[in-house]
Amino acid sequence: MPELPEVETIVRWLQREIQGFVLSKIEIRSEAILNSPKQEIESKTAGTRIQRVFRKGKYLGMDLSAFNTLWVHLGMTGQLVWLHPSKALDSHVHALIEFEGKSERLVYRDIRKFGSIFLTKGRSSGIPRGLSQLGPEPLELESREFVRIFKERTGRIKSLLLNQQLLAGLGNIYADESLHRAGIDPRRRSFRIPQSRLEALLGSVREVLEEAIASGGSTIDDYLHPDGTQGTFQKRHRVYGRENQPCPVCQTKIRRLVIAGRSSHFCPSCQK
Questions:
Q1: Class in CATH terms, 4-132
Q2: Residues known to be catalytic
């Protein structure tokens, strides 16, 4: 699933390439991905200008000139692809955005259809629960607030980092990588972690996210930039997806286990 760095990479590409464009039409090819009525999306976006592209957690938003906001969540396998008109559309393309004066189209492609597209009146009216209940952004969160959030909870730290109501944007990849850099076992109960180590964990989260954004995200399965290029941060993963390979710090074999139904990768020597 695309996480914060992948969505941020896409947002920055769209800011450079299409922010300010006028939508001529949106064509919905599959209503399975919609959280708003098809007719509403198609009719209320035609002729509007993209005023701003932004990110909130793992959601991508486009503020439009008609005071509506178009939202995209990529789910597990969703892609936003900048497509030349000579390229054929396959069966996994579920929405097309066309622009005035442009032959290229921005298409939403999703093999598993776990993603979603929806329209809201601004950023406050009709917001789905998953979006309205997002926690703070890790790159903006103050250390004392991070400590407060996690020090008062009894759950395992890995599971809590994945809770989007506590912290927006982290998923398996960057939670595992952050915990490794902070030297914290993913199974540890959050309230038992000393304040100083929670502060260090936030520092590791920020460091990992910033490095991943600078690398264009992690291309492991389906994730690509809109122009088709790949992210490269997967080449710098220390633990994620590296079961039985040596830890880059101590050479101990990386272990994989399941915590609350999610895979976790960690070094049993470095992480306590």
A1: alpha beta
A2: 2-3, 58, 262
